[in-house]
Design goal:
single chain; about 550 residues; alpha/beta; Alkaline Phosphatase, subunit A; 2,3-Bisphosphoglycerate-independent phosphoglycerate mutase, substrate-binding domain; eight-stranded mixed sheet; seven-stranded mixed sheet; about 30% helix; binds 3-phosphoglyceric acid; binds cobalt (II) ion
Length: about 550
């Protein structure tokens, strides 16, 4: 029968502290001036790279290595941390939705049949990120869903868009809106009353995460549900173009707007009896809205009016909370994660990050599961992030605080594993501010040093890696790798990248003879879990992706 007990590693001892450090958005790319990691002073990461050649390597962090549909899909933190923690590759949200749409199964399952009950009398609302970034949502999936829903009975459809500019180039929202408008026009020509109803920039409207700032969700609620926003327009393309003209405006932070008819009346508030789908497949930035839409008791902001709706998520965003209770596609079931195994084998675990990435080293790491496996053995510490600012203003973020808390956890002797995410490269990289990202990378490097110094003091082991690329490349490039110029200017890349990420192992506790194997050249993030289990003195379960290390006598 099944047992949580892990076999002893034949050569590696137990009881060494292992520090698992994940730099967010820290890939490996050729050095040039748009590689902020290269430009920044990063002596710690440099010394790992230039140290023992068999203790540093690259691993894949994008595409199929992390369960995404194709090799053109950049990595992201959700799938990256899922892979790091699970030690296996699961088909992820984007892929599951593709399959369900392609086979038509999405229209047969419980979630769609539930919302469909509204179609005869009421409107179907679709709320989500308008983007082809493939991180939270994809425009082609929205297009298919619009077609499919109308073919399956929806007669009135309203789309509530959130503009991206974070997983895709800033300014691309105009083109997406034009594609969406064409799709809706086509539906209208078939007699379906289909329109965009509201919009706003993802970072300012709706898509907050980890309860950093409920005001963001409230702004969305007001526009989407109540039909109230400071800006009113006749159509979405005009709305986005006009709002982008304001000084400093960008897609990520567009203010909320509603679309109004000729009488100035909003075309799509959500009312009793309507159906609502949040079409993002990724969880972290949809769970707050999902709570507002689903919970009867809710005190995060005044919803003013709470329509009785049939609500489904594209996926179920939180398996523990069963939120939302209805969903169109079943999420990957990630079980027996490395964290759960290690806790069952007595490994006392500390996890820490600041708010914006806290769920990454806990919820995503643990297979999209909230809470502790065993609160006696685990401690998860969240350091509050600055809120209400863009992180180029404070590029050091809470790196120092994360470093200190983790150092203290190591020196306390209370833990066998400390696990951290250092967010700077990613969060500041997403702002597109190259100078600030350089500062961010330096701060992240300093945090790594603090943790490694503590590891040295207690005779432990460190594993330093990253979840995906971001800060190592800040411009859009052609196939040859040269920056693409538009009107004589480079195009700033706020998104993640397709680059591999480094992984380094070391520390005084690392047994002599441990080195990276040469026979897993295409190793990816999912190979890290077995590696870490080995370093704790265990053999990984058989179905885990193979370890990256070997022990030579
Ligand atoms: C975001 O949600 O901020 C980006 O779309 C993806 O960033 P992450 O995958 O690094 O969290
Ligand atoms: Co990111």
């Amino acid at each position: 029968g099944f047992s949580w007990k892990l076999a002893d590693h034949p050569k590696l001892p137990k009881g060494k502290l292992v520090a698992m450090i994940v730099l967010d958005g820290w890939g490996e790319a050729s050095p040039d001036k748009y590689n902020c990691i290269h430009v920044a002073e990063t002596p710690t990461m440099d010394s790992l790279k230039n140290g023992a050649p068999d203790k540093w390597r690259l691993v894949r962090a994008h595409g199929t290595a992390v369960g995404l549909p194709t090799e053109d899909d950049m990595g992201n933190s959700e799938v990256g941390h899922n892979a790091l923690g699970a030690g296996r590759i699961y088909a992820q949200g984007a892929k599951l939705v593709d399959l369900a749409l392609a086979s038509g199964k999405i229209y047969e399952d419980e979630g769609f049949n539930y919302i469909k009950e509204s179609f005869a009398t009421n409107t179907l609302h679709l709320i989500g990120l308008m983007s082809d970034g493939g991180v939270h949502s994809r425009l082609d999936q929205l297009q298919l869903l619009l077609k499919g829903a109308s073919q399956h009975g929806a007669k009135s459809i309203r789309v509530h868009v959130l503009t991206d500019g974070r997983d895709v180039l800033d300014g691309s929202s105009v083109g997406f809106a034009e594609i969406l408008e064409a799709e809706l026009l086509d539906l209208r020509s078939k007699g379906i009353d289909a329109q965009v109803a509201s919009g706003g920039g993802r970072m300012y409207v709706t898509m907050d995460r980890y309860e950093n700032d409920w005001e963001v969700v409230k702004r969305g609620w007001d526009a989407q549900v109540l039909g109230e926003a400071p800006h009113k327009f006749k159509n979405v393309v005009e709305a986005i173009k006009t709002l982008r003209e304001a000084p400093g405006a960008n897609d990520q932070y567009l203010p909320p707007f509603v679309i109004v008819d000729d009488n100035g009346k909003p075309v799509g508030p959500i009312v009793d009896g309507d159906a609502v789908v949040t079409f993002n497949f990724r969880a972290d930035r949809m769970t707050m809205l999902a709570q507002a839409l689903e919970y009867e008791n809710f005190d995060k902001f005044d919803r003013v009016r709470v329509p009785k709706i049939r609500y489904a998520g594209m996926l179920q965003y939180d398996g523990e909370l069963k939120l939302p209770s209805h969903y169109l596609v079943s999420p990957p079931l990630i079980e027996r994660t490395s964290g759960e195994y290690l806790v069952h084998n007595g490994v006392r675990t500390f996890a820490c990050s600041e708010t914006v990435k806290f769920g990454h080293v806990t919820f995503f790491w643990n297979g999209n599961r909230s809470g502790y496996f065993n609160s006696e053995l685990e401690e998860y510490v969240e350091i509050p992030s600055d809120s209400g600012i863009t992180f180029n203003v404070q590029p050091k973020m809470k790196a120092l605080e994360i470093g200190e808390k983790t150092r203290d956890a190591i020196l306390s002797g209370r833990f066998d594993q400390v696990r951290v995410n250092i967010p700077n490269g990613d969060m500041v990289g997403h702002t597109g501010d190259v100078e600030a990202t350089v500062v961010a990378c330096k701060a992240a490097d300093e945090a790594v040093k603090m943790i490694i110094d503590a590891v040295e003091q207690v005779g432990g082991i460190y594993v330093v890696t990253a979840d995906h690329g971001n800060a190592e490349d800040m411009v859009k490039r052609n196939k040859k790798g040269e920056p693409i110029l538009k009107d004589g200017e480079v195009q700033i890349l706020t998104s993640h990248t397709l680059q591999p990420v480094p992984i380094a192992i070391g520390g005084p506790g690392l047994a002599a003879g441990v080195k990276f194997r040469k026979d897993v050249p295409s190793g990816g993030l999912a190979n890290v879990a077995a590696t870490v289990m080995n370093l704790h003195g265990f053999v990984a379960p058989d179905d885990y992706e193979t370890t990256l290390i070997e022990v030579v006598d």
